[in-house]
């Protein structure tokens, strides 16, 4: 009787530890965009709906966080700040993972809102907190590494 109980406890403990490891691994993996060693954790906007909503109605964005917009095609992707409550910096990145344009964008609650048009071809657009670009000396031409779901894009 005791041996059977000990066996059940050991099996349960192994299953519990395995489940905990899986949860920690999955929860610990974040999407990141890195400029050399300077990284931001990002939310991904890769569907039309998530790209349209973006960071609208957010009252804050944690430091070293942002949103990465992933487009199906490289193209000129203008952005606007309609219903965006916080200042942002917008960084356009081409399919070769090079920064092609940077804008400092201000919130816009009412029309007409400014359109931030890079007039450059990009596949990715990163929105981050103001001063990220200056504080990390990000500039056009910099290389970018995108770490997405355990893989680099």
What does this protein structure show overall?
The protein has 153 residues and is α+β, with helices and mostly antiparallel strands. Helices cover 24% and strands 35% of the residues. The protein contains three helices and ten strands; from the N terminus they run H-E-E-H-E-E-E-E-E-E-H-E-E. It has helices at 2-28, 48-53, 132-135, and strands spanning 31-35, 38-45, 65-75, 79-80, 88-93, 99-105, 115-116, 122-128, 145-148, 151-152. Strands 6-5-8-3-2-1-9-10 form an eight-stranded mixed sheet. A two-stranded antiparallel sheet has the order 4-7. Strand 9 (145-148) and strand 10 form a beta hairpin.
Strand and helix layout:
Elements: H1 2-28, E1 31-35, E2 38-45, H2 48-53, E3 65-75, E4 79-80, E5 88-93, E6 99-105, E7 115-116, E8 122-128, H3 132-135, E9 145-148, E10 151-152
Parallel strand pairs: 2-3
Antiparallel strand pairs: 1-2, 1-9, 3-8, 4-7, 5-6, 5-8, 9-10
Q: Could you name the key traits of this structure?
A:
153 residues; alpha+beta; eight-stranded mixed β-sheet; two-stranded antiparallel ribbon; 3 helices; 24% helix; 35% strand; elongated
């Amino acid at each position: 009787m005791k041996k059977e109980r000990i066996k059940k406890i050991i099996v349960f403990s192994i299953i519990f530890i395995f489940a905990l490891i899986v949860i920690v691994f999955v929860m610990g993996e974040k999407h990141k965009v890195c400029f050399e060693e300077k990284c931001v954790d990002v939310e991904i906007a890769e569907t039309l709906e998530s790209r349209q909503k973006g960071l609208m109605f957010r009252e804050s964005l944690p430091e070293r966080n942002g949103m990465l917009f992933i487009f199906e095609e490289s193209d000129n992707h203008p952005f606007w700040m309609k219903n965006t409550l916080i200042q942002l910096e917008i960084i356009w990145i081409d399919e070769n993972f090079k920064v092609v344009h940077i804008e400092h964008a201000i919130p816009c609650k009412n029309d007409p809102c400014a359109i931030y048009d890079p007039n450059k071809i990009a596949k990715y657009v990163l929105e981050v907190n103001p001063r990220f670009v200056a504080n990390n000396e990000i500039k056009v031409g910099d290389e970018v590494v995108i770490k997405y779901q355990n893989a680099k894009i």
